[in-house]
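Reopening: structure tokens for the SN-glycerol-1-phosphate complex, inputs below.
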Amino acid sequence: MVGRIEKYLLEKIESQGAIHITLIDPEKVTSSQASRIASKAKISGTSAIMIGGSTFVSGTHLDKIVKAVKRTIKIPIILFPNNVTGISRYADAIWFMSLLNSADPYFLIGAQVLGAPIIRRYRLEPLPMGYIIVGDGGTAGVVGKAVPVPYNKPELAAAHALAGQYLGMRFIYLEAGSGARRPVPPEMIRIVKSYIEVPVIVGGGIKSREQALAAASAGADIIVTGNIVENTEVKQKVSEIIKGIKSRRA
Ligand code: 1GP
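Re-run output (same inputs, fresh job):
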């Protein structure tokens, strides 16, 4: 059941304590920019590349980006789809995710039913993940018709996460929304982590070493950053975040 990429992620978490993944939004970059970001992030120590965004991107453009990144680096490429249009045959794996606090059944199970046969045909490795939007939720919250979990209700986030784990999801993602003014509070990460055994992914608005350190110290297993690689200082920024993750207090 556990595939190659899942094994890779679990082993990395086991040996390093917490890891970093770089998110590339295909809508915001050309294929050469995507390759440049991926190679610099890889040199700085990122463990995998996620490709996806909240709004529409054409299948041809997505394929081009994935292919370009694949040609450049050897670390896994994991799709982060907002819909069935976010699937590319050239990736290694896909977060097979359900937006647990969506009010729209399409984002809970509808898109998954449409996407599953395509994933099978493309032989992509599905990584079962429960996605929970917290705080103000940003674009992902609006697009996914989420009822975001307020930052002052960490037990509610934990209840969603636990329900996801009991349904068989093997990763839980706490999403503050890309570019969030406030990342997921460490207290929320800590409480979620104390409820569940599966790895916790945290992303949205993490821009500094201190924020990465706070998330990792609270128990995040995977820290995702997207926005910070969209400027020119990719190497320096990713190194800074990874230094934060590595200096965490266990
Ligand atoms: C968004 O969690 C990711 O889906 C990353 O957010 O772009 O703010 O780093 P940022």
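The pocket of SN-glycerol-1-phosphate is lined by residues 23, 140, 175, 178-180, 203-206, 224-227 (CB under 6 Å). The two ends are 30 Å apart (CA to CA). Marking as resolved unless the reporter disagrees.
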